[in-house]
């Protein structure tokens, strides 16, 4: 019979990790079942894919930070869904139904990563955006300068504070 663990302590550590992952998954399932489906989880994951699927994983984590910051730190996936589907807040939902956004996002190769990020975000994690509530593309062919951005990025908002640049996106807080 093969031995998988070198000692009892290692076995207990691995068992604890497995139990922790199972509890996280069960917690997420309970959260998403409030509306009778997994639709809530998939809506938030679709936002991560459609907003930052072309970036490295840190880009999707950063979008998740924005969602949590706008939800005032809430750990509720249902609250996050409300944040991402609020009119004109995330461009990936502009002119697109939620089911069509989910369908497009599910075809993306990083779909499973997005689901994992949403589930992991229910726990406390590092805010890579340092409290930012807004972001936009700041370089490359898709570069934009929305009126609400900081003046250094071509906007009219003198109070907006740049917190970090990740990939092609600038992240800001104190946006009016």
Number of domains: 2
For the largest sheet, list the strands in their spatial order.
Answer: 1-3-2
The biggest beta sheet reads:
3 strands, antiparallel
Q: What is the string of SSEs from the N terminus onward?
A: HHHHHHEEE
Number of strands: 3
Describe the overall structure:
There is one protein chain. The chain is mostly helical and 176 residues long. The protein folds into two domains: 7-126, no CATH class; 129-176, no CATH class. Helices cover 46% and strands 9% of the residues. The protein has helices spanning 8-32, 39-52, 57-70, 77-85, 98-106, 111-120, and strands at residues 134-137, 161-166, 169-173. A three-stranded antiparallel beta sheet has the order 1-3-2, with helices on one face. α2 (39-52) crosses α3 (57-70) and α3 packs across α6 (111-120). Mean pLDDT is 82; it is low at 1-8 and 10-36.
Question: How are the SSEs ordered, and which strands pair?
Answer:
Layout: H1 8-32, H2 39-52, H3 57-70, H4 77-85, H5 98-106, H6 111-120, E1 134-137, E2 161-166, E3 169-173
Antiparallel strand pairs: 1-3, 2-3
Keywords:
about 180 residues; mainly alpha; 2 domains; 3 strands; disordered N terminus
Short summary:
This protein has helices at 8-32, 39-52, 57-70, 77-85, 98-106, 111-120, and strands at 134-137, 161-166, 169-173. It folds into two domains: 7-126, no CATH class; 129-176, no CATH class.
